[in-house]
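Colleagues,

For the teaching module next term, I've prepared a clean inverse folding example: a structure given as tokens, and then the sequence designed for it. I'd like students to try predicting residues themselves before seeing the answer, so please don't circulate the second half yet.
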């Protein structure tokens, strides 16, 4: 069994998803923030944070997060093609 550290970005991302699914958007955003702090290129954390902001009605922040996630995703795809 693999031991997950509290410094594991995926732990925070998964818990953020659980909070978001329960409608606890502020808690979800805090966990997505931590995931991004650990891994600033975590595309899914930006996108999920954007969804949480959107559910809170904070559409400007939601759009910003989605744009960041899409930009990172495109950048990562370009790097894979170049290699």
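(Answer key — instructors only)
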């Amino acid at each position: 069994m693999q031991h997950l550290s509290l410094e594991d970005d995926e732990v925070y991302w998964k818990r953020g998803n659980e909070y978001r699914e329960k409608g606890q958007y502020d808690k979800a955003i805090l966990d997505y923030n931590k995931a991004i702090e650990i891994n600033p290129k975590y595309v899914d954390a930006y996108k999920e944070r954007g969804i949480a902001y959107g559910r809170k009605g904070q559409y400007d922040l939601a759009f910003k997060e989605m744009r960041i996630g899409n930009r990172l995703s495109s950048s990562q795809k370009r790097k894979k093609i170049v290699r």
